[in-house]
Amino acid sequence: MAKAFFRLQKFLRRTQFLLFFLTAAYLMAGSLLLLQRSRLVIQQGSRGTPANQALPVPDEMSRAGIIDPRTVQNPRPGPRLLVGMDGLQEAALEQWHSPHWLMSRNSELRQLRRRWFHKFTSDQEPMQTAGFKAMKHTAEHKGTYMGCFTDDSKERTLKGAVFYDLRKMTVAHCQEACAERAYSYAGLAYGAECYCGNSLPATAAKPEECNSECRGEKGSVCGGVNRISVYTVEELRAGARRRRNVIYRGCFRAPENITDTFPASLLQPNLTVEMCSEFCSKKEFPLAVIRGQECYCGYPTGHFSLHDSTDGRRCSGTHNASSTAEGKYCLVYQTPVQDTRCTDRKFLTTKTKVFVALSSFPGAGNTWARHLIEHATGYYTGSYYFDGALYNKGFKGEKDHWRSRRTICVKTHESGKTEIEMFDSAILLIRNPYKSLMAEFNRKYAGHLGYATDRNWKSKEWPDFVNSYASWWASHVLEWLKYGKRLLIVHYEDLKQSLIPKLKEMVEFLNVTVTEDRLLCVENNRDGNFKRSGARQKNFEPFTQEMKDLINRYILTVDEALRGRNFSGLPREYVPR
């Protein structure tokens, strides 16, 4: 009996130890998971420092009556917001350090972690349950499967119109994108990456080596590791090719050695724009140049930069060689083909010693600036947050930990003293607050590329948004001026107007050397995938006079602070409005 009891006791001790070990391992894994991303803002509507986090108010802000909206739980302006204005001078800061605030902050952080963990687990199963249901609605692709080929990222044959979709990539989706850009072949790799081109890769691989299933289409082959599945673009798109966008770039003086400047040419009687564009598209060149009956294809270069256009009347007879001022001028068109000289990007091979922030107020063009920087330097940019939509479109640094130091700079909307002092230097991107507020409001209600509805603009949410976010626009700049160690101030409007000089300044600040041709390539691909299509005109003025008075006051305060730090002031177009 004693022997049986001893065996039972030994078994229970082993089981107890096993349960204790498994419990400890589970808790440690969960803690590491939450700690890794506890500072990330996953919810699309939350940008920058969380809403309830209190930040110290700089002296300039106190004098101007500016307070970060994140210090106020109620989005409506409190007494502190309007200090210096008629009859309102109370301060209500005691709540910052009260137990009530701390409990609220801890509760918010727990909710944030739950949201992130839910998103994380759902991302791990993109091909299960709901994913399969979505695939049933995907249209079948058309075109011939050409086979499996080796894929060398350094010498890629299909290198045009590169894009990613880590959740919904299908063969038809890739084919359609390639067809719109006048390519003949669509190649898919790693289950989620799409590449286009007009020539097949040189080296074929074994069919079984293309073993990655398309992320958005069960049963379809989308390449593999260093392998690419190539399909022809459906023949039915041939009629649509003639209707693809060919953009007129202007009339320019032809280079002296035109045959040396452009690597491909065609002499064609009765030459038309469509003929020349189709010829250059098949040769995979982004520019189609017409002089008389001559068609030339190439890229923007130092010899032909497209910076000095001339009067269009000089090219009025370009299709008639006898009336083109002896062939001195030519017409230039942008083909649907992508300029691929600057599309290669990678992570830094060694960790950077200088931790650089790309800081801006939400809606100030941070994503666009990242696009320019990545294509100019050839290195990915990181992010203090995680945005799946940006990651799917090729910003691979989104999923890299923001403190990994493997990216050339890190996007942030933070403006607290602690957050600022973590960086060694920063590019501070500033945009007209009127435009920034509207851009962020659009993003908040319609995503990166959409527009808020008239109903959103006319609701009470818009004035609440302006009252809260307008002060944040000012406090963001003022706090970076106060706590930033080494700053490069870039105005969005200046970058838009003088892209190459300003981009060169940014690249030099990042201590990267680039060629002129690469910068011209960036200029040729300046818009990227996150530019809203045109400015949607509204039939009403969204800003009331009270809003304008408030915003103009913040503009003057920021302008004074910039000049006080020996930076150039804000562009004149900011005020008056």
From TrEMBL:
UniProt entry tagged with the keyword Repeat: yes
Pfam families per the UniProt record, alphabetical: Sulfotransfer_1 (PF00685), WSC (PF01822)
Membrane-spanning parts: none
Domain WSC: 142-234, 245-342
Entry keyword set: Repeat
Entry GO MF terms: sulfotransferase activity
PROSITE patterns from the UniProt entry: WSC
InterPro entries reported for this sequence: P-loop_NTPase, Sialate-O-sulfotransferase, Sulfotransferase_dom, WSC_carb-bd
Protein family: Belongs to the WSCD family.
Protein name: WSCD1 protein
Protein's gene: Wscd1
